[in-house]
Known about the structure:
The chain is built from 24 helices and 5 strands. The protein is mainly α. It has 5 domains: 1-85, Serine Threonine Protein Phosphatase 5, Tetratricopeptide repeat; 115-253, Serine Threonine Protein Phosphatase 5, Tetratricopeptide repeat (Alpha Horseshoe); 273-376, Serine Threonine Protein Phosphatase 5, Tetratricopeptide repeat, CATH 1.25.40; 389-398 and 441-489, no CATH class; 400-440, no CATH class. A 3-stranded antiparallel beta sheet has the order 4-3-5, with no helix packed on it. A hairpin with a 2-residue loop joins β1 (337-340) and β2.
Amino acid sequence: MIRLLADAGADLNHRDSDGLYPIHVLACRSADCLRTLLEYRRKVDIEAKSSSGMTALLLAVSSNPVELENVKVLINAGANLDATNEMGHMALSWTYTSNYDKLVSLTLQQEDFDINLCARSYGNALHQACKNGKIDLVKMLVDHGSDINLLLRCNYGTPLQCVCLASDDSNYENIKDIMRYLIANGADVKAEGGLFGSVIDSAAMVASSDAIRLLLEHGAPLDIMDDMGRLPIHHASINYLDVFKILVKAGGDISVRDKLRRTTLHCAAQYGNAEVVEHLLERMGPEAVHYTDIDGWTPLCWVVRGLDRYYDSHEGSTDRLKVVRLLLEHNADVSAQGTIGKESFSVLKIARYSNADPKIFTLLRKGIGEEGATKYPRGDLRLLSRLFLSQYSFGQYEESYTIAKPAMILISVEKCYHHRDIIHPAAKYPNHEFEEIGPGYDPSPPQSRKGSILSLSSSSFSSGWGGGSEEDDANKVAAIDEERDSEDD
């Protein structure tokens, strides 16, 4: 049929409504059909790109499993092995494919393949093999001349950093073996670069205590900062406590601050790392809970803000509610005020803005006294109740997003955006333009709001706000506030 249509003059480069050409469709189907189409090579644009920037070869190698025969057909027909899509992915970027090792072996046989060609965010094949704990592939790539110290400015840095960021427990032994292999073959444990600054910065965040010890034994320094001014000790504050203690023993300073003036306690609180927070509260003294960052944010502000971990290997150790309780037990000030840009934010407002667990709101409001009795002064309680009730007046707060071009990375941390000149300087990142595409929240009340602020339906809010026990809590707080006002009169 393909030959019949081609001989009849059919357009072999016709683009359908999904942005696909015939060669794109056949790249993931029958190799025989693909061969037939490529008999008309002069009429077929083998490098044509889909609407997402995918060539036929990129589509073939990203299928799972990869149809290796199709890849061979395309390569033999002259497909460009160095092609990239709009996200910078190239032929060996899709490591999830079940026969990825065979694809690498096939690609390495091609004389025109640049083994050190990098996707701008994910590196080359060696970076990917290290990140996924594939020791046989690592050895194969190094044997074929892959640069063992090839450095990426963003994300992964060097291949050794990639190994340190590998968080799959099933590859634990492979990860240690790869680290030893790379170091034995000349990997630089002191290399600077990547999103997290250095090899041990990356390892401190997610790696095991054995990995940390190995790097320290080979002279990894503890004084290399990332772009945000974070040292390995900052990154270790989100890892397990034993890793944190190893770095402290090696000379890490628990009171050191990053460019945003955050201590290790701010960092540990932000990620809900209760065991490290508890350890720091014992060592840093009673004033630590009141330490403020560049915007006046205390550790309590940061824990209710929260942030997902870069990697999920330690997600089970996240307990923000416990961290809030620990900070309150050490007399953290629930009425503390910080800023985002020019706007002032209370602890409760930050929590609401960040869609925190409703249990955190209850703990902030009632405190940790007997039977939930608040420990806070009258004025503070009234402030909290009004902010609590404004949830119903204004609706759910939503994050504003900022786009960094051309990387098109969505950055949801508006607080950091206001300090982009400090943590993302234009001199270092000249091609990244920031465009604000929405307000943090709409301060105007919903059009449907009539009468009591509690008349809004629960569907107006997320995270269970607006009904049931949460509505009862709001009524109680409103009553307390009215009582305080009458006393003042």
